[in-house]
Amino acid sequence: MLDFRARTFLSACRTRNYTRTAEELSITQPAVSQHIAYLERHYGMKLFSYVGKRLELTTAGELLYRALSGMAHDERLAEEALADLRTGRERLSFGVTLTVGEYLIARPLARYLSMHPHVDVRVEQAGTEVLLRRLREGEIDCALIEGYFDKHDLAWREFCMQELVGVCAPGTELSLGGSVGFEGLLERHILVREPGSGTRAVLEHALAERNLSLASFARMTEVSSLNIIKAFVAADVGISFLYEAAVREELEAGRLARIPLAGPSVDHAITFVHLAGSVFEERFERFFEELAALSRS
What we know:
Layout: H1 4-15, H2 18-25, H3 29-43, E1 48-51, E2 54-57, H4 59-87, E3 90-96, H5 98-104, H6 106-115, E4 119-125, H7 128-136, E5 142-145, E6 154-168, H8 173-176, E7 189-192, H9 198-208, E8 219-222, H10 226-234, E9 239-243, H11 244-253, E10 257-258, E11 266-275, H12 281-296
Parallel strand pairs: 3-4, 3-5, 7-8, 7-9
Antiparallel strand pairs: 1-2, 5-11, 6-9, 6-10, 6-11
Helix pairs in contact: 1-2, 1-3, 1-4, 2-3, 6-12
GO molecular function, one term: DNA-binding transcription factor activity
Family: Belongs to the LysR transcriptional regulatory family.
InterPro entries: LysR_HTH_N, LysR_subst-bd, WH-like_DNA-bd_sf, WH_DNA-bd_sf
């Protein structure tokens, strides 16, 4: 079991505030300070420092956080596994991004659940950055994410490749004209997902490769809902860039039109991730293999 001082440290890493840590753990603020001081003496290094008034992890603190959060996650899974031995059931917490959850994994996951009635799966839908944070904090076991991410403490495998496609209202100049580069779209109103979205990160990366940014467009509107973005595009409010899986039905039905982009397509991997070195890695990999197979069948 994790030492109680280690749990205080993990809480402080999440809250970045000793007062909130004390409230979260129902202990006093001096006790929080004592626990952190003990760990710093034990390891012989400072774990936190103040940048202005904000509490930040040092390099040593980051290293210890990654190690202890992985241990806390495996401890939780071990407790659940021991409890599951009595009931014959198995639990798994699975994170998915919006596009993945709505358009790529729902049907394969439904088939998986039907095939494994003894498995209780908790599915959490959020942006890539939120899911990665919850994974590292031990709140979820594994995830399917979009976008770019730091792989140093994660085990990862490619689930599939998706093309990021430009979409506009059908019958408009863009849908009827010839191919156009990103530079030819800058006078348009662009509709994008919120910061932290994998779809947005991939678009921003593609723009940066061309020395452009979202600020290069004449107007930008942030929308967290894919369905609202698609409704806005269909009403000719603006254009957007979404994964092909998210707009396939609308493109086939003629409710949206594809912008014929010049140059190579913008492709990006949908990636399965979990914490590297977990003692439950075999379980996560088995789950991934079945989902991948079901998505192809």
